[in-house]
């Protein structure tokens, strides 16, 4: 299938629009790009209409934000052409934080504010488009998190706020303390990870009309490499359907499967390879029939629908 740049934009709440397909930067350091090459990479993503970039403070051992930001700083005007999404709340031992001796969560006001301000410095910007609370901290104090997000928003340091990996009840609790809407819940969903279909997160996203960002939409690569029965079944059906829709790649059909969900999913890609990103953008044009969608569901679950 010919890969054409077709990335559309999605209206979130309160006037924010994001690209439907979103490059994720978790693996950035593995790509070994120079600052110049990363600048070119960002511009090529923008040319494809992929204007939204997903980060987290922890990526690359707390180093990815700054590497990306250095590429932005080297090209004046670039920052205004894109949306920066980043996350905070996970704490693990890393050079920058010698005081942390174990993996834990920290959604205290101080940590949220410090992480946002650190991200502003890393990205050489004075605003973040969207800040997400990375995981539902069991010690999360909703009043405190809401106060921190409100403070950041009132100061213009973040435009919007959201969450990641939240169950519907976590979302409802935090939302109950905010006087502005959370924008999205970034959750895992793919042909190798169907939980979001059963735990209410996709239903809540649809109910509230808050399009969910989808992490690891290709199973973190396991869709292509895993040797278990399920992965082999899924690959075989992806290949059949790819041929049926005119020669689409396995990755494109797998993304089309995620994109078909009526919650208006926004897949966050993990690859840095431009040919794969281009193919992903083109996957938006693939329309699976209901039966093609269920053939993949059946391959993933290993059984027919009841
Ligand atoms: N909120 C959260 O808790 C959370 C958690 C995890 C990730 N994320 C976000 O989601 C993003 C994506 O996560 P992910 O990297 O796990 O996503 P993914 O897109 O499911 O997996 C990426 C992996 O798949 C491989 N891959 C992609 N296309 C391929 C193809 N056509 N053939 C073979 N291999 C292919 C990539 O290899 P190559 O690099 O060789 O292309 C890479 O190793 C991250 O960057 C991050 O922004 C968020």
Q: Tell me the domain tally.
A: 1
In terms of per-residue confidence, which ranges show pLDDT below 50 for 5 or more consecutive residues?
Answer: none
Percentage of helical residues? 40-55%
Full CATH superfamily name: NADP-dependent oxidoreductase domain
Look at the helices and sheets and give the structural class: alpha/beta
The mean pLDDT is: 96
Bound chemical compounds: NADP nicotinamide-adenine-dinucleotide phosphate
How many DSSP-defined strands?
A: 12
End-to-end Cα distance: 34 Å
> H/E order of the elements?
EEEHEHHEEEHEHEHEHHEHHHEHH
Examine the coordinates and then state which fold CATH places here, giving the name of the CATH topology: TIM Barrel
Based on CA inertia axes, which overall geometry fits? globular
Radius of gyration: 19 Å
Assess the beta-strand content as a share of residues. Answer: 5-15%
CATH class: Alpha Beta
What does this protein structure show overall?
The chain has 306 residues and is α/β, with parallel strands linked by helices. It has one domain: NADP-dependent oxidoreductase domain (TIM Barrel, Alpha-Beta Barrel), CATH 3.20.20. It contains 13 helices and twelve strands. It has helices at residues 35-47, 59-62, 64-73, 109-123, 142-154, 168-176, 195-198, 201-208, 222-225, 229-244, 250-259, 274-283, 290-301; strands spanning 9-11, 17-19, 22-23, 52-54, 83-88, 90-91, 104-105, 128-133, 158-164, 185-188, 213-215, 266-269. The strands form three sheets. The protein has an eight-stranded parallel β-sheet with strand order 3-12-11-10-9-8-5-4, with helices on one face. Helix 3 packs parallel to helix 4 and helix 4 (109-123) runs parallel beside helix 5. The two termini are 34 Å apart. The model has no long low-confidence stretch (mean pLDDT 96). The structure holds NADP nicotinamide-adenine-dinucleotide phosphate. The site of NADP nicotinamide-adenine-dinucleotide phosphate has 24 residues, from strand 12.
